[in-house]
Amino acid sequence: MNPVVVEARGLQKTFGRQHVLRGVDWRLPRGTVVGLLGRNGAGKSTLIECLLGLRETDAGSVSLFGEPVTALSEGARGRIGYVPQKAEAFEWLTPVQMLEYFRALYPRWNDARVEGLLRRWGFGGELRDKPIGRLSGGEKQRLAIIRALAHEPELLVLDEPVASLDPVGRREFLRELIGTVADGETTVVFSTHILSDLERVALDVAFLHDGRIGLQAPLDELLEGARRITGPAAALDALGLGGELRRERHPGGSVTVVARLSDAEQARLRALDGVQADALSLEDLFVEVTK
Ligand SMILES: Nc1ncnc2c1ncn2[C@@H]1O[C@H](COP(=O)(O)OP(=O)(O)OP(=O)(O)O)[C@@H](O)[C@H]1O
């Protein structure tokens, strides 16, 4: 059993009267690579900030590498890499100066990786010495990713890391990320709205909805088993499907059910007349689960 890297229990966070996190329980064993999904304003950035101890919570607790996030040791801090949604820091430094600054803070720093990424990600020439404040949004984001990968973190948390990247930049980032997680030792939390990217890299997906992690599962299992089923309520109820995610009643006694089905349940369903079952894409599932 892999050790647990992130453990959140009963996390709650309100802003004024808005209850954004309503008791998040989340446990990520080492090597988990999870895409965090949710509608705009669902609380993904808030959750990420609470997990990293960057934002105070109203209730609940978080531990990282087995240590309470409120009293994290220097050693544990050095094992974390974080790319915030907006990388607006150190605007007066050049990329090279900023990386030098961070290099001094970490016990481990992979110079060869940093140099390779700088060259491949457009910082081979004049951008190296340009103040960060004058870089484009995508350039700042690339630099934030380089900084987060440089000390080879064991926990990498990325808040919409590709939002400002062009398709080539996204592809290069994903390639780098896939390389990073290949060892099975790095734990990654990765929020994004670009579901096609998740399909390429995330092993698990988690949906944040109504202030809680409503569903987390391996992506391939989720896509294999998820169905939107419409038919007479009585017939569907008789099947006793587990894993129901959503149910909508229609006039006349029929229902639409979104559910995760086992192979056996799928077989039982196929034998039923008058029932329509459609497979769902990740995008369909996102819409259904976050309704
Ligand atoms: N500092 C703050 N003060 C007041 N409200 C806030 C603050 N930060 C976030 N919120 C509110 O909390 C909710 C969750 O915001 P958050 O940024 O966590 O969502 P998100 O899921 O990351 O959204 P997006 O996908 O749009 O980036 C939003 O309704 C937001 O307006």
What does this structure look like?
The chain is of the alpha/beta class and 291 residues long. The protein has two domains: 207 residues, P-loop containing nucleotide triphosphate hydrolases (Rossmann fold); 68 residues, 2-Layer Sandwich (Alpha-Beta Plaits). The strands form three sheets. Strands 6-7-8-3-9-10 form a six-stranded mixed sheet, with helices on both faces. Adenosine-5'-triphosphate binds next to strand 2 and helix 1.
CATH fold field value of the largest domain:
Rossmann fold
Task: State the helix count.
Answer: 11
Q: How confident overall, as mean pLDDT?
A: 90
Helix content: 25-40%
Helix/strand structural class: alpha/beta
Q: Are any ligands bound, and if so which?
A: adenosine-5'-triphosphate
Q: Determine the N-to-C terminus distance.
A: 35 Å
Keywords: ATP-binding, Cell membrane, Membrane, Nucleotide-binding, Transport
GO molecular function: ATP binding; ATP hydrolysis activity
Pfam families: ABC_tran (PF00005)
InterPro entries: AAA+_ATPase, ABC_transporter-like_ATP-bd, ABC_transporter-like_CS, ABC_Transporter_VariousFunc, P-loop_NTPase
